[in-house]
Amino acid sequence: MSTKTMKKVFAFPTSLKPAETHYCPGCGHSIAHRLVAECLDELNLRGRTIGVPGVGCAFLAYNYFNFDVVEAPHGRALAVATGVKRVHPDKFVITYQGDGDLAAIGTGETIHAANRGEKISTVFINNAIYGMTGGQMAPTTIIGQRSTTTPGGRSAVRDGSPIDISRMLAVADGAVYIERCALTTVKDIRKAKRAMAKSFRCQLEGLGFSLVELLSPCPTNWKLTPKDAWKWVNEDLQQVFPVGVIKDTTGFEETA
Amino acid sequence: MKGDRVLMRGSDTAGEAAVRAGCRFYFGYPITPQNELPEYLASRLPEVGGVFIQAESEVASINIALGASAAGARVMTSSSSPGISLMQEGISYMVGSQLPAVIVNMMRGGPGLGNIAPSAADYLQTTRGGGHGDCRMPVLAPADCQELAELTFLAFDLADKYRTPVILLGDGLMGQVMEPVIFPDPIDPAKLAPKDWALDGCEGREPRIICSYYPQTGELYSHNFLLQAKYDAISANEMRWESYATEDAKVIVVAYGTASRIARSAIDDLREQGFQIGMFRPITLWPFPEAALREVVGEGRSVAVFELCLGQMVEDVRLAVKGQDAIHFLGVPGGNIPTPSEVAEFLKSIADGSGGIGRRIAV
Asked: What is the ipTM of this complex?
């Protein structure tokens, strides 16, 4: 009989603490955390990473991320991350922000960090709603979508249209790579991981600012089952926010 | 120019002192009357391998400073009154997260957009915490460029020692005036004590978390007591003040910053006329040197307060001199700068008992 050596092909990422998260069933945050951790592990970055979570459902991300983390006031993650990165240009700095944080209260900090070409990788969770505060309208809430502050559905006339911040950021010269992905099907999630790894590589190569937007289900505040929430991302949210590369001036492909 | 006497503007003095105190990171947003400080550092910091960023707002400035501080650097930002209002969110986070920084406020007239003239109307905003929550931080008030240079060094030391933001409180006049300065010897930032709480990646150690959020039952309760113990230690160890011509004084005027310089001239004039008047000048506005003031005032002396606003520090003086009948108060708002002779008239009216100038505030 031949002896077979077992090869480890899968393990819990070192960049995550073995903790149970507080996220709701079907929420995209757990998947996004996992992708961040897997990418950091695979690029061997954990020991020199400093994370800056924004305020939102993921503000407690430091309980799950197994690396250095500094809290930022609501919306200010990219300002805080700028300070960290300018002090430690040789370290790896990521922000992890929701749509309210990045595209409403923090719009100024976001646009200007991107425009300065800060060598930071941003993970942008777009779930079209304010999760932590209980389901109010987000800047990315789509027309007709009900929230606790748009009880009859978002109205373009009254509330304005959903803002596509990723496309807005793409006009900034300092932004080198922006891609929108979805945290729904296995295929989509694998694509999201590839985008994240590419964004991380942009920073490692000192190219400039990069961002991966992740369309992320929020079954609790959408008042849908997890399965219907995934369906809503794929059939409704993607109508307004189509997935795909929004900007890429890097000149390289991520193969991992 | 080590040890040399140089002629320098107040804003430039704060910038040069920061560089010599080992600060290599400055982030700020333009606002009059302190633009010379960021302008100075925009050219000075690159000379020493430092980083200057003109941020998109004061909100961004303070938060970039927060990040740089969390990363372990000595960092400065500056603004003037309305800009400091915008920074207060970040200041509170820095107090809560125990992050050091030096924040310069060259005050201007208010409220609102006010004007760009020298004023001292941010005393309460600054000394009552400077941000939301149970928040306190040291506030240093220099009266001239030499003292500004020295207090800038002290501000960085206090910030690191107590892990707290520190405010340097000047005004438009302090920012603009040119005076001779001898700077303290420069500090090499590489030789500063390492910060065992700062973030630089968790290689070879456990990950560190810097935050101001304490959600579990009892956590914030304990954290607030920890901060209070720090505030108590600062109050016990770091009060600073100056007494001027107080030994034989029958009237003690309390004034800080620009107001103290006008008061000093008035006192010098009045002393030539035989009036025994002295001054107590708080240098730390928080912690306010309450016991020292009480001791200087002692028994049987009249207390006067002169401020470039309509009465803010006077509240601290009232608390300090309980037992006095009244405080004589002269407040000049709106960025108007009275002449020494106007202040002398006020002080004389107290000394000769004629009264009638300023307000009499019951204690």
From this structure: 0.96
